[in-house]
Amino acid sequence: MDRVIEVRDLTKVYKMGEVEVHALRGVSFDIERGEVVSIMGPSGSGKSTLMNMLGCLDRPSSGEYCLDGELVSSLTDDQLAIIRNRKVGFVFQSFNLLSRFSSLANVELPLRYAGVTSGRRDLARQALEAVGLGDRIHHRPTELSGGQQQRVAIARAIVNKPAIIMADEPTGNLDSKVGQEIMDLLLSLNRERGTTLIIVTHDPRIAAQTGRVIRLQDGLLDLGEGGSAEGKHKAGKREQARAGEEAGKSRKGAS
Questions:
Q1: How many CB atoms lie within 10 A of CB 24?
Q2: Could you tell me the residue ranges of all domains in the chain?
Q3: Which architecture characterizes domain 3-254 according to CATH?
Q4: What is the Cα–Cα distance from 97 to 107, expressed in whole angstroms?
Q5: How far from 104 is each of 6, 100, 133, 196, 218, CA to CA, in Å?
Q6: For 150-195, what is each residue's pLDDT tens digit?
Q7: I need a surface site. Which of 24, 77, 118, 149 has the fewest CB within 10 A?
Q8: What predicted TM-score, i.e. pTM, was given to this entire model?
């Protein structure tokens, strides 16, 4: 098995004065290279904290996290920034584009941070063409629709050819039609490039389209089956089926 993510007994404790908040309480799981996984859970379940850990935006209080063969759970902030730039592509709900920059300049940013000088503009252009925006490279965010802005954000996420793409509610600010187009684009990039895709979502219609659902509850994984490897797989498939059923109910309710 080619595991791109290995998480063992990950915990995160936030201290607020004399109060300790346990956001993650010993989380363990693996994600295979090229897999498409969604992470679900109610507010306060630890979804955002887990995403920050997986995206190398924060360090755990204890436990181990290996990303693409590198133990990153104990790295310094500067070391995490290097790993984050090389191995993680981010797609956010609010796009997070620089309004004064063109699409091309926004996509070039990760290459600049990585110290790439030769062919940087061509690489950014190729990424924009890959998401269907080859004719919008000189447009600024204010000149683009919400769906087009998210496509620019996806191009920015893939331009460094990362090991994983972390998508945090990538369709949350879009209507259902455009949201599905963005989801189709992410899935097509996964198929064509083999990039591991991790989607944090509350939408069962999005989760039902992923290969596995990881559900968090009170900082723990709701895995079932005793937490064995087989049990984790079965639990993930059950969650996918549950998400499909919830998506079906949502569609019926909207009709």
A1: 26
A2: 3-254
A3: 3-Layer(aba) Sandwich (3.40)
A4: 9
A5: 34, 12, 10, 24, 41
A6: 999 999 999 999 999 999 999 999 999 999 999 999 999 999 999 9
A7: 118
A8: 0.84
